[in-house]
């Protein structure tokens, strides 16, 4: 398979030249498990490890390879490669690391488009769509909204839902589909461009796997299959994390993406709620919170019905979360800094006492 088939293009070539990496091989990371990677190259798929140098110069998690990365490699063993460098990323899908407040964890990189999938039955919730949009905005990934399972509701109910979404979410493509009846699947396929990388975001059960199977025309998604090689009945996921579709589109689907959720949407608010940000320029006070102030342009717009009340309320809620997240980050930095100071003081003390 040619490099172009899994996303290589002129920009990546340029980056390779700029960073003096042409002497190395090139590949794309297709999976990552505890610092063991799989890298896809023109010659096949290889197990990979990072060089000691890359490890020791890494300042944070973000300096380690992630699924979607283009990496400079050399072969060192039969079907094994070493990763020497990571090419600069076009986009980064991140989340707050579990258990480590205030730290970001990269889920996947170099994704061009995200399909935000929502089912029109129980899962339907515009606030949630706005959260996923915000995740896309902060990651620089272009969103496309998919309403799935339209076989379960009437046409009038569907057109009501569509206008409801369009009322709140502007300038984002929207598609209504059914994996069961196949309605709209062609339209989705039409959105998929050769050489571009996609991912599917959405809650569990909305039909992401079904859609992926429909797009690829294969039963790709097998999870929790029992490993036959070890025969210990251990659950392993056998599916690939980077899938090349027949029409040349590339889909990244890994456990991290599946877990992206509600708590990961604190950044990127300004774009999702651009209308409110624009209005707030006309508020009397520069630090207006748009809740109780006099001459607040946002409140006025909500009162006059120019801005949807639910849209406004979701904005306030997410803004509060963002502020909370930022203060947690600030606290953590302060703690780290204090700790650093303490270490330094201790070292100085040790020097002066000569022990
Ligand atoms: N009626 C109907 N059911 C669907 C449709 N698409 C998917 N389903 C069903 O919804 C259930 C969940 O679908 P999945 O494709 O596994 O959902 P998922 O988003 O991949 O879920 P996770 O793997 O948990 O993230 C399955 O029982 C599917 O058969 C659809 O268009 N219509
Ligand atoms: Zn205001």
From TrEMBL:
GO terms for cellular component: cytoplasm. Its EC number is 3.6.1.-. Binds 1 zinc ion per subunit. It comes from the Bacteria. GTP binds at residues 148-151, 202-210. Keywords: Cytoplasm, GTP-binding, Hydrolase, Metal-binding, Nucleotide-binding, Ribosome biogenesis, RNA-binding, rRNA-binding, Zinc. InterPro entries: G_CP_dom, NA-bd_OB-fold, P-loop_NTPase, Ribosome_biogen_GTPase_RsgA, RsgA_GTPase_dom. The keyword Transcription does not apply. SUPFAM superfamilies: Nucleic acid-binding proteins, P-loop containing nucleoside triphosphate hydrolases. Zn(2+) binds at residues 283, 288, 290, 296. The keyword rRNA-binding applies. GO terms for biological process: ribosomal small subunit biogenesis. Residues 109-258 form the EngC GTPase domain. GO terms for molecular function: GTP binding; GTPase activity; metal ion binding; rRNA binding. Residues 100-260 form the CP-type G domain. It is found in: Cytoplasm. CDD domains: YjeQ_EngC (cd01854). PANTHER family: SMALL RIBOSOMAL SUBUNIT BIOGENESIS GTPASE RSGA (PTHR32120:SF10). Monomer. Associates with 30S ribosomal subunit, binds 16S rRNA. Belongs to the TRAFAC class YlqF/YawG GTPase family. RsgA subfamily. One of several proteins that assist in the late maturation steps of the functional core of the 30S ribosomal subunit. Helps release RbfA from mature subunits. May play a role in the assembly of ribosomal proteins into the subunit. Circularly permuted GTPase that catalyzes slow GTP hydrolysis, GTPase activity is stimulated by the 30S ribosomal subunit. This is Small ribosomal subunit biogenesis GTPase RsgA. It comes from Flagellimonas olearia. The gene is rsgA.
